[in-house]
Amino acid sequence: MLLLVQKGAVMERTRINPSLLIGLGGQGQKSLVEIRRRLEATYGCVPPQIKLMALEDLAALRDSLAAEAEKAKKSGDEQREQAFQRDVEAVTEFQTTLQDQS
What digits encode the pLDDT tens for the residues 65-102? Predict the structure, then answer.
């Protein structure tokens, strides 16, 4: 697939092969965020032929979200803290549902 990319005042055709990028764990997810940022800076969006997938252990995800909520609390950012707390609750509820089904 060809993608038109604006470089200065010139539109270039860029060939991008279909790709699936998989990030494992917290560091993998951080890498995907950086890749997404760079794609958006280069192309204005993530090209549709590129898919990003992060895989995380639910317990690690919950712990990571709880740590972010604690950081937000210490910085006095109540809105962000509440958002992270809602995410922690959602992951915990999902874990409980999975355990009940097994």
Answer: 899 899 999 999 999 899 889 989 998 998 888 888 87
Q: Where does the pLDDT of residue 12 fall: very low under 50, low under 70, confident under 90, or very high at 90 and above?
A: low
Provide the 8-state DSSP code for 49.
T
Q: Which spans in the chain are helix H? A: 25-43, 58-75, 78-101
Which amino acid belongs to residue 14? T
Write down the pTM of the prediction: 0.54
Q: Assess contact for 47 and 28: CB atoms under 8 A.
A: no
| Residue appearing with tokens 């109540």 | 78
Q: Is residue 98 part of a domain?
A: no
Angle ∠(43,13,33) on CA atoms, nearest 5: 20
Q: Are residues 46 and 23 in the same domain?
A: yes
